[in-house]
Amino acid sequence: MRIDESDFEFEMSEVDKVFADAKVPIAARPIQAMIAIFKRHQTTGLLSSFGELNLIFPINETNLCDHVGVWYETRYGAKLNIDPSLGRFPLLLEGAAYECRIPLIIGSRIILTAKDQMVGQMILNTLDHVIDLPSLVRERLSDLAEAEIQALFITCANVSQKLGRLKQDFIISAKSDMLLSSDLICGYSVNASLSAWHSLQFAEKVIKHYISSFKTPARTHDIAKLMTMAEQHGLPKDKRIDLGLFSFDASVRYEPNQIDVERAVRINHEAWRIAYNILIHSKS
Predict the structure, then answer these.
(1) Among 12, 87, 100, 248, who pairs with 160 as Cys (CB 3.0-4.6 Å)?
(2) Which residues have CB under 8 Å from 260's CB, separation 6+?
(3) Considering Cα of 20, then 22, then 23, then 29, what sign does the dihedral take?
(4) Torsion angles phi and psi, residue 205, rounded to 5
(5) Is residue 174 a contact partner of residue 206, using CB atoms and an 8 Å limit?
(6) Distance from first CA to last CA of the chain, Å, rounded?
(7) How far is CA 67 from the centre of its chain?
(8) Is the alpha carbon torsion for 130, 133, 136, 140 positive or negative?
(9) H helices within the chain, ranges in order?
(10) Which of 104, 105, 108, 147 is nearest to 127 (CA)?
């Protein structure tokens, strides 16, 4: 793919008009514009870059993302401010919670976790997606911590991609709970207990999505009971899941100090693992 400056301006104006007529939110247009142009030219390429902007012409598969980003920034400015990630989850590092965002991943990528900056269009370094991670904390990460972050990132990325393809009510609601759970640990207004509740809700709704393929799910928040029901309908039992982490009830929503941040992070991660087990065995 090779696009010169005049052709690019024409294509972008044409594509953006289609989005405007279809009332596509402005913040959602850059990614969709890249995909539309790649489809026009029958190719694929990067949807995000990790280094300095490359605004050289002609445009190719590796720098289209930079040109599209600048094109939209010039025309819409602050109207673009939105989190474009597929999902997010908390990491507890040296006693502080940091948010890790999962980018939209198109095509094959090598996912790794490395303290050093890794350059390459096919490389996705998970630590580059941890928001506001201090360089000193990054440098002090142990090999074990790097391995755990990488495994968790891959799990959450797989779940986020699968959730993105599902439109059922349980799943739509579960996505909101997943985002809120992370925000309530990593944001400015920390409420670990409420975060834990939304993690439970995330897991609960994904399990109920699975059960609903066979029968109407029970009206309960008991994750252990719901997992037993799911296993009765073919879900393989995973003894590694710590269901005891979810041994709290709805009153946790009104007791901010019932659960601390460390436990809330563990609950969040366990909810992602439950969702992963459910979705890889789900028929829908």
Answers:
(1) 87
(2) 192
(3) negative
(4) -70, -30
(5) yes
(6) 36
(7) 24
(8) negative
(9) 5-21, 29-40, 64-76, 135-139, 143-164, 169-186, 192-211, 223-231, 261-281
(10) 147
127 within 8 A of 149, measured Cβ to Cβ: yes
Per the CB < 8 A criterion, the answer to whether 192 and 260 are in contact is: yes
Q: Are 185 and 268 in contact (CB under 8 A)?
A: yes
CA 275 to chain centre: 13
Q: Which of 267, 255, 210 is nearest to 235 (CA)?
A: 210
**Residue count of the chain:** 284
My answer on whether omega of the bond before 84 falls inside 30° of 0, hence cis, is no
Q: Distance between alpha carbon 187 and the CA centroid of its chain, in Å?
A: 16
One pLDDT digit (tens) per residue for the chain, 284 residues:
899 998 999 999 999 999 898 888 888 888 889 999 999 999 888 887 666 788 888 999 988 999 998 998 898 887 666 666 789 999 999 999 999 999 877 666 788 898 887 766 688 899 999 999 999 999 999 999 999 999 999 999 999 999 988 889 999 999 999 999 999 999 888 999 999 999 999 999 999 999 999 999 989 999 999 999 999 999 999 999 999 999 999 999 999 899 999 999 999 999 999 999 999 887 66
Element (H, E) at 102: strand 96-102
Look up residue 162 and give its two tokens. 């699968």
> What's this model's pTM, rounded to 2 decimal places?
0.71
Q: Are 196 and 263 within 8 A, CB to CB?
A: yes
Distance CA(207)–CA(271), nearest Å, equals: 10
Tokens of 86: 């597929």
